[in-house]
Amino acid sequence: MLGGPFTGIIFVRDGIRFIWTLKTLRTLLSFCVTFLYIPIISVLSKTFLRCYDVRGQPTSCWAGSSLPLSVVCVAVGAPFVIVAFICQATFFEQEPGGKDALSRPHARVELIHLSVRTYLTLLFTTIRRPSIADLDLNPMTPAESWVLVLSLVISSTLTCMAYAYYMPYFKFNYTLLQTALLASWNFSCLALLYVQLRPNSMNEISILFFFLAPMYSLLIVSLQVVRRRWLLKVDVRKLTDPLSIELKARLLLEERGCSSRPTKHSLRKEQTCWQIKRLCLTNSRT
């Protein structure tokens, strides 16, 4: 957050002279939004969501000696989350033919994923216990268990289906890999729901998980492949969802080789690409 104003001051005073500031800022923000996002949110949120006194007993985070730290963490955490969402929505490679596997035309699905990560981090922080011993003395209530399990099931299903349905990345193979990983997470949450419904079924679900999880991931990935083939064949006039029309245009451009880096395209190929773009844009507006 401090790097943004610093970079802005440099540009105002000296113009575009220090490109290293932009590269450094982008690298740091990318790490904060991906690998470091959950640890940072967890550290900041635990100071104002669940506090304990010197004896390990729960206490209010908004009274007494905990109040100043809670105010500071909220003042730092709220701008950090806003900056993280802005970075996720803007800091990504948009070149279709580039080497970056994360290149994508938009960040809608990534914003959904970031929202899910934020919600689950805050939820885990709220219901956490300071130690294993405290968990034995003060176990989770049935309401807390159900809220946690249902939140995991809904969040994992929403994220997995969003990736499978909208295929956010230009490189389809990476999209399949990401969808398979999310499908495995989704099946893990469904297995947790099964254990929640049948508390004595831990042994059987543990054995079945190793057999059913790969099959579930393969099923979701296969449905994604089927949807891709269907979008390539269906008439664009039958599509009513603007995002599906956009996806069909992107897939058609990819099939015709129009989304790769420019080399020696023939005139006929360029005309075909332009016809695809014009047809899909016309139908998306109508």
Automatic annotation (TrEMBL):
Keywords linked to the UniProt accession: Membrane, Transmembrane, Transmembrane helix
Ranges that cross the membrane: 27-49, 69-91, 147-167, 174-195, 207-226
InterPro entries cross-referenced by the UniProt entry: Tiny_macrocysts_regulators
RNA-binding listed as a keyword: no
KW Membrane (keyword) present: yes
Listed PANTHER family: GAMETE ENRICHED GENE 10 PROTEIN-RELATED (PTHR31600:SF2), TINY MACROCYSTS PROTEIN B-RELATED (PTHR31600)
Protein name as catalogued: Uncharacterized protein
Origin species: Catenaria anguillulae PL171
Lineage, broadest ranks: Eukaryota, Fungi, Fungi incertae sedis, Blastocladiomycota, Blastocladiomycetes
